[in-house]
Write a structure and sequence with these properties.
The protein has 78 residues and is mainly α. The chain has one domain (5-75). Helices cover 79% and strands 0% of the residues. The chain has 4 helices and no strands. It is elongated. The two termini are 19 Å apart. The mean pLDDT is 86.
């Protein structure tokens, strides 16, 4: 379970995706309330997601880019 700032920042993506356990979500939420630095990182990541989502909806993704992204995902080491 994440407790320090490094862990919190590492887990922001799964937190934003809603892919954490209830316990981990609670720990992160409490930490974000108490840590301005991590809260700033959270708000930044949330804003980036909104901008990317907005941009992705305006234009279709070129097929060549879609293929490259999927290839990168499937060949990445976990």
């Amino acid at each position: 379970m994440a407790h320090n700032c490094d862990d919190i920042c590492r887990d922001l993506h799964v937190y934003l995706d809603g892919e954490t356990t209830v316990a981990t979500r609670s720990v992160i939420a409490v930490h974000l309330e108490d840590c301005p630095s991590c809260a700033d990182a959270f708000h930044f990541e949330a804003q980036v997601r909104l901008v990317v989502a907005r941009c992705c909806c305006e234009e279709p993704v070129p097929e060549s880019l879609r293929v490259r992204v999927l290839r990168a995902i499937y060949t990445a080491d976990p």
